[in-house]
Task: inverse folding
């Protein structure tokens, strides 16, 4: 498993500061940045749901977290976008602090 470089974690954190028009766009921006980061960490070019499943396996996430993050692939259908957004930001924070999973 690889580690994120400083510039890669900074790109993740920039997502926190990006101007958006609402939670759906914010979810989309965070998911795009996290996809890039997870591809580095997991050394994979997989899509979002596959990356989330692999990260959940490697890091021992519970099923609720995995399901919530997988659902970010279609934020428009989210029953609770704010909860989804918090889950994404938690992952951003973890990757920023640890620069890897597991």
Result:
């Amino acid at each position: 498993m690889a580690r994120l470089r400083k510039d890669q974690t900074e790109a993740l954190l920039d997502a926190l500061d990006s101007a958006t028009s609402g939670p759906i766009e914010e979810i989309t921006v965070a998911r795009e940045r996290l996809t890039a980061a997870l591809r580095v960490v997991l050394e994979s070019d997989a899509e979002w749901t596959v990356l989330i499943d692999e990260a959940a396996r490697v890091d021992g996430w519970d099923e609720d977290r995995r399901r919530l993050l997988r659902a970010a692939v279609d934020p428009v259908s989210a029953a609770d976008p704010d909860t989804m957004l918090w889950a994404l930001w938690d992952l951003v924070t973890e990757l920023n602090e640890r620069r890897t999973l597991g």
Remarks:
- The CA atoms of residues 16 and 30 lie 8 Å apart.
